[in-house]
Amino acid sequence: MSPRTSVVWTPEFLRYQLSDDHPLNPVRLDLTMRLATELGVLDGVETVEPEPATEEDLLRVHEPGYLSAVRSAPEMPFDVGHGLGTDDNPIFFGMHEASALICGGSLRAAREIAEGRADRAVNIAGGLHHAMPGRAAGFCVYNDCAVAIAWLLEQGYERIAYVDVDVHHGDGVQTMFYDDPRVMTVSLHQHPLTLWPGTGWPAELGKGRGEGYSVNIPLPPGTGDAGWQRAFHAVVPSLLDEFRPQILVSECGADAHSEDPLANLELSVDGQRATYRAMRELAERTSGGKWLILGGGGYALFRVVPRAWTHLLATALDRDLEPATPLPASWISHATTLTRRPLPVAMTDDADPAWTPWGDGVTDRVDGAVLDTRRAVFPLHGLDPDDPRD
C-alpha cells in the first residue's frame, strides 16, 4: 500500500511577506503550487487547511515576552527589540497572524501523521528554522519546526530526528532541543566561517543528556552535488539507523543551489531531487515511513525554488517526475510576467548527481568536514568514526 500523504496549503500563507523587496518573497510558494498543479503532481490531492497556532502552541518554544513584542510591534513607534525591526526581520502589519498561521500549518502536518490520517505530510511554507525562543532571526519570526516537534513530544514521541538541508545552519531548532536526547538535530550547511549565522561546528554536540544529539556537517563553499551527497550519506544514514526515530522531520531549504544569491554552495535541482529521494528512503527504513516535510530558505525565486519544491512534493506523493520533464508553457508564461530573467524549460539542470561513497579510497574536498563530524559524534552512539561500514 502506498503511503498516505497530506499536503497542507492555504493561499493565506502568502501573507508572510516581510517587505516588498525582502529576499524571502512568498511568490516562491505560489509559483511552486502552480507548477505542481500544472504538472499533475497534485491531481486528486485535496489540500489540508491549517488554523493559526495558538498562544499555547507558540509558548511551547517561545518566551511570553517575545510573543507580546511580536503582537504589539506593528503598532509601536519605537524599537521593540527581540530582533524585530532589522533588515533581516522588518516589522510588518499582521506579523503575528501570518507567522502563527505558518506554525499552524506545520502543526497541522504533524497532527495528520500523529493522528493516523497520513504517513507523510508537507508544509512548504514552513521551515522557519532560525527563530529563537526570545527573538526573531534570519527572516524567521516564529520557529514552526520547533513548535511542531515540541507538540509531537507532548503526544508521547520519544525519538524525533530533524534533518536540515538548508544552506544555513538550523540554529534555532538546535538551540531549542540542545539538551534533549529525544530530538536528534542534524544540519548540513555551508561552513560557519563563510556564511551567516556563523554557527554549526562539529563540536556543537548538545549538552547534558542531549550530548551527541546535535550533529553538524559544515561544508566548504563551492561544494556541489557529488560532495554534498558524499557528506550526507557518510553521516546521516548511520546515525538514523542507530537512533531509530519514530518520525523524521525534514527542513528542505532550496538555497544550497548554485544560483541562490545568498550563499555559495553549488547544488543543482537534480542534486536536490536526489536528496529528497534519499530522505524518503531513510524515512521508510528508519521511522516506519513517518515523514514530516517542511520548506525553508530559497531565494532564486523563479528559476530554482518552484522546480526544487515541485520535485519535493512529487517525492512525498510518490509521483516522482523525470528530470527532463518540460515546464508547462502556461507556467512559463505566467512566471515571465513576474521576472525579467530567462526561465528554465525543464525540471532539470542537466546535472548528474552521482557521488562516490566516503571511505572508498578517493579523497574529496568535503572529507575533512565528514571526518570531523564523525569523530565528534559517532563514538557517542557506539559507532566507529573511521570505519566506512558504520
From TrEMBL:
Keywords carried by this UniProt record: Acetoin catabolism
Gene3D superfamilies per UniProt: Histone deacetylase domain
Domain Histone deacetylase, chain residue ranges per copy: 22-315
Name of this protein: Acetoin utilization protein AcuC
InterPro entries cross-referenced by the UniProt entry: AcuC, HDACs, His_deacetylse_dom, His_deacetylse_dom_sf, Ureohydrolase_dom_sf
Segments crossing the lipid bilayer: none
Keyword Membrane: no
Pfam families: Hist_deacetyl
Family: Belongs to the histone deacetylase family.
Lineage: Bacteria, Bacillati, Actinomycetota, Actinomycetes, Pseudonocardiales
Pathway linked to the protein: Ketone degradation; acetoin degradation
